[in-house]
Amino acid sequence: METVKPATAPVLLENVGYRIGGIAVLSGISLRSDAMRIGVIGRNGSGKSTLARLIAGLLEPEPGRIRIEEVDVFKDRRAAIRTVGILFQNPEHQIIFPTVVEEIGFGLRQLGQSKQDAEAGALAMLAEFGKAHWKDAPIHALSQGQKHLVCMMSVLAMRPRLLVLDEPFAGLDIPTRMQLTRQLNASGTRLLHISHDTRDLEGYDQVYWLDEGKIRASGPPAQLLRDFTNEMTRIGGGDDLSHLAS
Ligand SMILES: Nc1ncnc2c1ncn2[C@@H]1O[C@H](COP(=O)(O)OP(=O)(O)OP(=O)(O)O)[C@@H](O)[C@H]1O
């Protein structure tokens, strides 16, 4: 017997659009998923980062509706910071404080915790990741992979229901990617991972293919990632870099 899907889902987008400078960057995006690991694949300029920011509640959809765990993440920012976390490609865009413990504690302060509780929470997070010795490390002296891990710990410390990953592994070497992926999977957090790299999404539960601001296909990763790779290889044989958006 076919199971009827409930009207709500942990990740729900209905007819979402977004325009920049009068140009439609995203349109007609409808997505509803209760999968634990959701992937979005798309090439450069397909609208991935814009979609990540919309789902994290940093931009307002127009038109359309976004609900994460039933929270309107743009309008209800107090609820949103407990609901969705986001990791960006460049940790420099995320890091504010000079030391690791201050950086991780900052998110907890945002949740309303006292200075002492936030520091204790940050130390607990470091211990959970086996990095208690990083406590007073100056962030500027860390490697790129280590900075990524600090950002990851900072976001996970806030225990979001959904973690949006906006290509956080781009530019990292294979061992670093493997270690960060392992830490993320071990966290047990629902992931929505946006990438142009099929390697990031192998083994995900459900993948959406974003193409020129629209969802072109969705399904389990095996076939969809193969179709995506074939299409990227076909496009790569031509010269569509010449084309300027207007
Ligand atoms: N501030 C802006 N002003 C004008 N156009 C923009 C701006 N930001 C994004 N765009 C355009 O919106 C489209 C989608 O951008 P977005 O960054 O969401 O794509 P992306 O898939 O994340 O790209 P990439 O993989 O290259 O980071 C692109 O065509 C881009 O040129």
TrEMBL record:
GO molecular function annotations of the record: ATP binding; ATP hydrolysis activity; ATPase-coupled transmembrane transporter activity
InterPro entries documented for this protein: AAA+_ATPase, ABC_transporter-like_ATP-bd, ABC_transpr_CbiO/EcfA_su, ECF_ABC_transporter_ATP-bd, P-loop_NTPase
Assigned GO CC terms: ATP-binding cassette (ABC) transporter complex
UniProt cross-references to SMART domains, sorted A to Z: AAA (SM00382)
UniProt entry keywords in alphabetical sequence: ATP-binding, Cell membrane, Membrane, Nucleotide-binding, Translocase, Transport
Predominant location category: membrane
Protein's UniProt keywords contain Transport: yes
PROSITE patterns named among the record's database cross-references: ABC_TRANSPORTER_2 (PS50893)
ABC transporter domain segment(s): 11-237
Record carries keyword Hydrolase: no
Location in the cell: Cell membrane
Membrane topology: Peripheral membrane protein
Stored PANTHER family: ENERGY-COUPLING FACTOR TRANSPORTER ATP-BINDING PROTEIN ECFA2, HEAVY METAL TRANSPORTER
Protein name stated in the entry: ABC transporter ATP-binding protein
Highest classification ranks of the organism: Bacteria, Pseudomonadati, Pseudomonadota, Alphaproteobacteria, Rhodobacterales
